[in-house]
Specification:
The protein is mostly helical. 55% of the residues lie in helices and 7% in strands. The chain is built from six helices and three strands. A three-stranded antiparallel β-sheet has the order 1-3-2. A hairpin with a 2-residue loop joins strand 2 and strand 3. 12% of the residues are buried.
């Protein structure tokens, strides 16, 4: 397969060209050269972009994802890092499940005011506890 220009990579990967240029700045991908003003990429960049997308979906930072590649560009994924992320996701799922259940309770609570609902008050207290990570941030 021949090299792909930046527009074709962007289209196939479903990413704007600006994201490809940003990934290039971060050292996550590298063009093989230029044809005129357009960057050219090896077709293997599409698999690399898929790995980057998977890492981002799992919640890895771009710096963490960059460490998942050897200097030659081949994947070198630390299994312990994957295990640690899976455990972090398990904790997050439990937190979000508890939050969902509390919100559903508050929505159906017969108390005259949400502030009179003990479950809602507990939710407020947990959300403002020191050191508490706010869901979604």
């Amino acid at each position: 397969m021949t090299e792909l220009d930046i527009a074709e990579v962007a289209q196939r990967a479903g990413l704007p060209a600006s994201t490809l240029r940003f990934y290039e700045e971060k050292g996550l991908i590298a063009p093989t050269g230029r044809r005129g003003l357009r960057r050219q990429y090896d077709p293997g960049v599409l698999e690399r972009l898929a790995l980057i997308a998977l890492g981002r979906t799992a919640g890895f930072s771009l710096d963490e994802i960059a460490r998942m590649f050897a200097p030659d560009g081949r994947p070198r994924i630390d299994r312990q890092m994957l295990t640690d992320k899976a455990e972090e996701l398990d904790r997050r799922i439990r937190e979000l499940g508890a939050l969902r259940d509390s919100l559903r309770h508050a929505a159906a609570c017969p108390a005259p005011s949400h502030l009179q609902c003990p479950t809602f008050r507990r939710l407020l207290a947990e959300a403002t506890a020191p050191g508490r990570r706010v869901p979604g941030r």
